[in-house]
Specification:
homodimer; Arc Repressor Mutant, subunit A; Transcriptional regulator (chains A, B); alpha+beta; DNA-binding; 221 residues; transcription (chains A, B); 8 helices; six-stranded antiparallel sheet; 26% strand; cNMP-bd_dom (chains A, B); cNMP-bd_dom_sf (chains A, B); Jelly Rolls; three-stranded antiparallel sheet; elongated; 9 strands
DNA sequence: TGAAAAGTGTAACAGCTGTTACAATTCGGT
DNA sequence: ACCGAATTGTAACAGCTGTTACACTTTTCA
C-alpha cells in the first residue's frame, strides 16, 4: 500500500518509510467497495479524507430534473473530495459512485488535520491539491460555458491534440462524453456526424482522427 | 486597516494586535486601484496573495467568442483568487477588474507561505477559504447546468426567499444578472416578462416580489 | 432642469438542442 | 460463432435561446 501512497499527490516527496511512520501516528482504515456502489450522495457531510487506492470512481451532479452532469472520474492514488473536507459546509457536491471494485484509505477529519500538522510537506501537498481542485472546477465552468456542442467538441479535441498526434484515443464512450459535456447523447452524435461530413474529423470507436485541425481551431473564435 | 483585517476570513479569530504582530514579520504592501482598472487577465500567473480592503472587484470569464460570464463579485475583506495561489498552474481563471475605487493588501507568495506557517489559526482559516472557494465553484457549476432560464431564475430567487420575505432586493441590474446566468440580456428579460404575466412574480427595479412561491418551486422539478 | 447615459420591455427570426423512437453496428461472454 | 447487450447513427419535431433592432423609461450628472 505504501508504494501506491508514495505516488499519491498528498504524500509526494515522501519515502514509503516516512509515510508508514506518519500513518502509525494517525488512525486510519481501509474501505472496500464494489462496482456501482454509491459511496456518497450529494449534500452528505464529508467526514473523512479519502485516498483512492484501487478502482475507479465518478462524481456526478444531478439536478432536480434528474439531468446528470459527470464532473470527473477519479483513479488511484488521487484524493477524493479534497476540496470539500474543510470550509463552512463540508458537503459532497456530487454523487460519488464506483465504476469498478476497489478500496480507499480513509482518515477522519480531525485525524487528517493532525496529519497535516505532523509534516509540512504533506500540508503543502494538500494546499496544492485543493488549489488544483479549484482550478479544475474553474476550467470546468469555462468549458461548460461554451454555447454550442461544436465548440465543446473542438475544445475537447484540441486539448489533446497539442502533442501533435492526429489520432486521439477516447477513453469514454459517447454517452459518457455527453454527460461530461452536459448535453444529450443524440445531440452529441448528430454534431459528430456533421463534423465528419464536413471532413474535419473521423470519429471511430475508441479514437478520433483529426483531419483538419485548422477548421477545428476556427470553431473556437 | 487592522480593524478591517480582523474581520477578514483569513485573520478570523485573531485580535488586531496579533494581526499587527504577524504583519510586522511578513513583508507586504498596499495596492491602490481605480474603477474599471483591469487588475489581472485570465491566464496571468498569480504571484501574490491579495486581500481586498476597500472597493469592489469582479471576476469574469471570457471565452474565445467574447462571451463573458461573471463568476463573482468580491467585497472587503475577502481574499482574491485564494484558490489559485497554490497548485500546479497558479493562474488567474478570470479577468479581474475593479467595479469601484479601492485598495488591497498584497503579499508575495513565499511571504504568504511564511505567514501560514507562523500562525496555525491563519493556516486553518486559509484551508477553509480555499475549500469554500471550491464549494462555491462547485455550486456555480450546478447552477449553470440548469437547462432553462426559467430554472435559473427560480433557483436564484428561491435561494433568497427562504428567509420568508416576499420581497427580494436585487443588488444587480438585468445585464449583470444575465452575465451571472450565462445568458443573453433580452432572453432574461423575456423570461421575466413571461413569469410576470403568469402572476408568479413582480419584477421591479431593485427588487422582486414573489407572488406564488409554489409555482416557482414546481419549476425546479 | 435638461440632456445624455443607462437600464428595461418587446418583437421577429434563425439556429441549436432535447426528446423520442428506432435502426444499425459492434462488443462481450459463453 | 452465436446471441444479447451495449453502443452508435439517424430522423422529425417542438421548444428554447441568441441576435438584432428599436421604443420606452429611469437615472445620472452637468
Amino acid at each position: 500500500m505504501n508504494t501506491i501512497l508514495s505516488q499519491s499527490p498528498i504524500f509526494k516527496g515522501l519515502q514509503p518509510p516516512e509515510i508508514e511512520n506518519l500513518l502509525v501516528q494517525v488512525p486510519h482504515q481501509i474501505r472496500h467497495f464494489h462496482k456501482d456502489d454509491l459511496l456518497a450522495v450529494a449534500g452528505e457531510e464529508v467526514k473523512t479524507a479519502m485516498i483512492l487506492l484501487e478502482g475507479k470512481l465518478q462524481g456526478e451532479m444531478v439536478d432536480f430534473s434528474g439531468n446528470s452532469l459527470k464532473i470527473e472520474e477519479l483513479i488511484p492514488p488521487q484524493m477524493v473530495a479534497a476540496g470539500f473536507l474543510f470550509g463552512k459546509k463540508s458537503r459532497f457536491p456530487v454523487n460519488l459512485s464506483a465504476m469498478a471494485d476497489g478500496e480507499m484509505l480513509i482518515i477522519l477529519k480531525p485525524n487528517f488535520t493532525r496529519l497535516l500538522s505532523l509534516d509540512n510537506r504533506v500540508l503543502n501537498n494538500f494546499l496544492n491539491i485543493i488549489s488544483d481542485k479549484a482550478q479544475f472546477l474553474s476550467r470546468k465552468i469555462s468549458f461548460l460555458n461554451f454555447k454550442t456542442i461544436r465548440e465543446k467538441i473542438a475544445f475537447f479535441l484540441l486539448q489533446h491534440y497539442k502533442s501533435g498526434f492526429r489520432n486521439i484515443p477516447l477513453k469514454q464512450n459517447q454517452q459518457s462524453l455527453a454527460e461530461m459535456f452536459g448535453v444529450a447523447r443524440p445531440s452529441l452524435a448528430r454534431t459528430i456526424g456533421e463534423l465528419q461530413r464536413e471532413g474535419i474529423l473521423e470519429w471511430r470507436r475508441g479514437e478520433v482522427e483529426i483531419k483538419n485541425a485548422e477548421v477545428l481551431k476556427s470553431i473556437l473564435q
